[in-house]
Design brief:
It is a single chain. The chain is of the alpha+beta class. The protein has 2 domains: 132 residues, no CATH class; 119 residues, no CATH class. It is 21% helix and 32% strand. The chain contains 6 helices and 19 strands. Strands 5-4-3-2-8-9-10-11-7 form a 9-stranded antiparallel sheet. Strands 14-13-12-16-17-18-19-15 form an 8-stranded antiparallel sheet. A two-stranded antiparallel ribbon has the order 1-6. Helix 5 packs across helix 6. The N terminus is likely disordered.
Length: 300
């Protein structure tokens, strides 16, 4: 008798679960194929805005082909992070619903409103609650509701500081890199070290007994300055009265990018005053960045 009673409870739970699922998925269009959320392309847009109920919006704007963060910080954006936020335009799903009752899906008070602006006007995606059965999120766009994985809202909800570009030089600056003035770092003061990369791609050093090899210098620049990324970044207000060991990256257009060395250990901290950003590197990576393989020979 007791076993039958338990069995009846289990059957009741199954029936309730099925009823709940059907209630939350009325008139769903399903089939063998998948539904595309949109036909939009990333190239259609030059602004991305993510708005949340309880915190400041995150806004990106494309300038000269690269994404910049405008709010809550003014900084270069991590390009991949912005692309992940926009990737919802290429999402597909097995389930599409008509947007008849926004409140049923939490879309009357969305947890996220994502607006993409550009040549296609404003395209708005709103994010509601999660389906308790599939654990997918209800997302409204263009009069339809789609069940999508949570990665799309998670990408937009990433902490803004994590979406700041972690490379110390911008893409345009990396293309114009022409040398380094390291004379104001302790280890190079005696030699007033400067290394120059000619327009023909040849390295030269101002120290007569230095014997750099072109391959080693190219590998150093590629590893330390073209590909290297900080482990994290933070914003700061430069103290113009405070002096630090420093160096400059020289660009072909004559511009010099100044860096202050704030700390060597346990992390290597390089500050860029013009951006108000401190770049955190591991000790080894930071040390390599300011010590090119110039191979200075001992005096005989």
């Amino acid at each position: 008798m007791k076993k039958r009673w338990i069995l009846n409870l289990l059957l009741l739970a199954v029936v309730v679960g099925i009823a709940l699922f059907l209630h939350l998925k009325p008139q769903a269009q399903t089939g063998v194929g998948k539904f595309e959320v949109s036909q939009l392309k990333m190239a259609d847009f030059n602004q991305v805005k993510a708005e949340f109920p309880a915190k400041a919006p995150t806004i990106f704007e494309k300038v000269d082909g690269y994404w910049m963060m405008r709010k809550p910080y003014a900084a270069r954006a991590d390009q991949a992070s912005v692309q992940r936020v926009m990737s919802i335009i290429a999402a597909t799903t097995m389930t599409k619903l008509p947007l008849l009752d926004p409140a049923k899906y939490g879309l009357d008070q969305p947890v996220l409103k994502l607006t993409l602006s550009g040549s296609k006007g404003e395209q708005v995606f709103t994010f509601g609650t999660y389906n308790p059965v599939s654990e997918e999120q209800y997302v409204a766009y263009a009069g339809q509701v789609y069940l999508l994985g949570g990665q799309y809202s998670e990408a937009a909800a990433t902490q803004p500081i994590e979406m700041v570009d972690k490379t110390p030089l911008s893409p345009a600056e990396r293309k114009q890199l022409a040398g380094f003035d390291l004379a104001h770092l302790e280890q190079w003061e005696e030699n007033a070290l400067k290394v120059v990369l000619s327009s023909q791609g040849q390295w030269s050093v101002n120290v007569t007994n230095a014997k750099p090899t072109q391959n080693e210098m190219n590998e150093w620049m590629d590893f330390s300055w073209l590909q290297s990324q900080a482990t994290s970044v933070e914003f700061y207000s430069p103290d113009r009265k405070q002096t630090y060991p420093s160096f400059e990256v020289v660009l072909r257009n004559g511009k010099k990018v100044h860096f202050d060395k704030l700390q060597e250990s346990p992390e290597y901290l390089l500050a860029r005053p013009d951006e108000g950003i401190i770049y955190h590197f591991t000790n080894d990576a930071g040390f390599t960045m300011v010590n090119p393989p110039v191979n200075i020979q001992a005096a005989k």
